[in-house]
Amino acid sequence: MASGNIDMTKDTILKVEHLSMKFGGLMAINDFSFEAKRGEITALIGPNGAGKTTVFNCITGFYKPTMGMITMRRRTGEEHLLERLPDFEITKKAKVARTFQNIRLFSGLTVLENLLVAQHNALMKASGYTFLGLLGMPVYKKAAAGAIDKAKYWLDKADLTERADDPAGDLPYGAQRRLEIARAMCTEPELLCLDEPAAGLNPKESLALNNLLRGIRAEGTSLLLIEHDMSVVMEISDHVVVLEYGQKISDGTPDHVKNDPKVIAAYLGVEDDEVEEVIAEELGGTL
Ligand SMILES: Nc1ncnc2c1ncn2[C@@H]1O[C@H](COP(=O)(O)OP(=O)(O)OP(=O)(O)O)[C@@H](O)[C@H]1O
């Protein structure tokens, strides 16, 4: 399906097929298909209103699509049809985690507490859901120690160790965003979905974010991010899918997509056949 030299030999982690989403009379997504490969950073981009958030919400269970199939393939080979799962099972069973465009942390809790709360479900399971279990069972103690180790690990990766005991709400914006990602990683997802992770970050914070995302990829977690700023994704993505008016207009490597006249036209807001003329005019104007 993909063009532009995408590595077809890699294992597919997410397959979206013929996805459509209608809001009243508006067809926000229209017969949209793409695949994300395991171990890669896949970016879904497009101009404002193209339908990125809607696709993202369908994948992460916030919307039930009008039509289409979304298959998540776990490392074990187990497959889950995400459009049929309630959102909490998308995290728990299918191992898909997400972050939000507007940061959603427990701002009164410390940075470390935010990372421990994320592991609440695993800890409660280890307690056997009993008070006694919480008090004394070795299995709970082991799980609690494991949760602290995991939190420490992600504090370090997100460069937040020094702020571990500070309230999350006191962190600068970029650090809050990294904390949100670290918190999602504590649930051990196989696919991490990020909603405009670079929005509102300054260049230094963007660099720290890119390093964190590359680190996550290096550990084998696949990433799917949505972004409307093309320049942000070009640096870190392995694969870029472009949406316009709810339909796919390009799909391939960052280089392929960047040079695709359809994409240039979409971002410049002109017709395909006017692209060369507009670019020549722009260049003429800057010379
Ligand atoms: N809950 C909703 N009810 C009605 N229309 C919606 C809803 N959500 C999205 N839309 C419409 O669907 C279309 C796609 O919107 P969407 O937010 O998915 O685009 P986007 O690419 O994420 O845009 P942006 O970059 O501005 O966030 C838009 O026309 C939007 O107005």
From TrEMBL:
Single GO molecular function: L-valine transmembrane transporter activity
Alphabetical keyword list: Amino-acid transport, ATP-binding, Nucleotide-binding, Transport
Taxonomic classification: Bacteria, Pseudomonadati, Pseudomonadota, Alphaproteobacteria, Hyphomicrobiales
Cellular component, GO, one term: plasma membrane
Family: Belongs to the ABC transporter superfamily.
Residues annotated as domain ABC transporter: 14-270
Keyword Chloroplast (UniProt): no
Taxonomic superkingdom: Bacteria
InterPro entries named in the record: AAA+_ATPase, ABC_AA/LPS_Transport, ABC_transporter-like_ATP-bd, BCA_ABC_TP_C, P-loop_NTPase
CDD domains named in the record: ABC_Mj1267_LivG_branched (cd03219)
Matches recorded under Gene3D superfamilies: P-loop containing nucleotide triphosphate hydrolases
One GO-annotated biological process of the protein: L-valine import across plasma membrane
The keyword Transport is annotated on this UniProt entry: yes
Protein's name according to its UniProt entry: ABC transporter ATP-binding protein
